[in-house]
Specification:
This protein is about 20% helix and about 30% strand. It is of the alpha/beta class. The protein has two domains: about 5-70; about 95-205, UDP N-Acetylglucosamine Acyltransferase, domain 1, CATH 2.160.10.10. A hairpin with a 4-residue loop joins strand 23 and strand 24 (about 205-210). The longest helix has 13 residues, at about 75-85. The radius of gyration is 17 Å and the shape is globular. The relative contact order is 0.11. Bound molecules: coenzyme A. Coenzyme A binds near residues 73 and 187.
């Protein structure tokens, strides 16, 4: 196990869930990190864990071994913050809480495999992804960088999902389907055909609803 002090970037629901799970394992999160402009509006502590500014985190990291994991659920922000960490040579921490990660699968730096998730044989999950609670990823599947799979998403075998994608609550992706980059799959969608880049789809069967021009899921 790494001895680096673990920090979480963000103070939302995923951040709190991860901190709680770690505290139950007696492997505490050292702090929540937010950007300096939000510090004034944030509590000093959440769950008795200090909330510090990104600048303070960067300073701590100059003389202490640390890792930080981005907890946000919007792919565009995951990418932005991950690139910021890389540009400053800060180490992104990978968090594996899932039920099963096959030994022949790989997970990129900064990715969270949340509680109850399953990553089957010969899968590749990119960097800084959020694979949420009870996601099932079928064998031989590939998830691109910064992509977010919401709770209870089910992905069949040999599926490919590109970079910066968001898959909503409980969506099902048929085996061998290829989904491009910057795609939003709405909650409950049943994806039976390949999906082109930069679109929003939902429904059963999933259909293209519009272009993903805003690159934002949550308004
Ligand atoms: C697909 C999605 C991004 C579309 O968001 P949006 O563009 O803001 O859409 P709106 O909420 O304005 O809804 C527009 C219409 O689409 C319908 N709609 C929205 N999402 C839908 C979905 N997933 N399936 C079927 N219909 C949907 C709405 O009912 C509405 O229909 P109406 O015009 O007849 O009233 C969003 O609905 C969604 O599914 N987000 C993911 C939520 C989620 O999984 N959160 C996870 C939290 S961890």
């Amino acid at each position: 196990m790494s001895t680096a002090a673990k920090y979480i970037y963000g103070i939302g629901g995923v951040a709190r869930e991860i901190a709680d799970i770690f505290s139950r394992m007696n492997d505490n999160i050292a702090g929540f990190v937010i950007d300096a402009e939000y510090i004034a509006d944030s509590p000093a502590k959440i769950m008795n864990i200090p909330v510090i500014s990104f600048d303070d985190y960067a300073e701590i990291s100059r003389h202490t071994q640390t890792s930080i994991t981005v907890s946000l659920g919007e792919p565009v922000y995951r990418k932005m913050l991950s690139e910021k960490l890389t540009s400053r040579n800060l180490i992104e921490g990978t968090i594996i809480l899932g039920d099963y990660l096959a030994s022949d699968s790989s997970v990129g730096a900064g990715t969270i495999l949340h509680a109850g998730s399953v990553v089957s044989s010969k899968c590749s999950v990119g960097k800084s992804c959020l694979i949420n609670k009870r996601v099932i990823l079928g064998h031989d599947s590939t998830i691109g960088n910064y992509s977010v799979l919401s709770p209870n998403v089910t992905v069949g075998g040999h599926v490919s999902i590109g970079n910066n994608c968001f898959v909503g609550l409980g969506a099902c992706i048929r085996d061998r389907v290829k989904i491009g980059y910057d795609v939003i799959v709405g909650m409950g969608a049943v994806v039976t055909r390949d999906i082109e880049d930069e679109v929003v789809v939902y429904g059963n069967p999933a259909r293209i609803i519009r272009r993903n021009e805003m690159h934002k899921v949550f308004r």
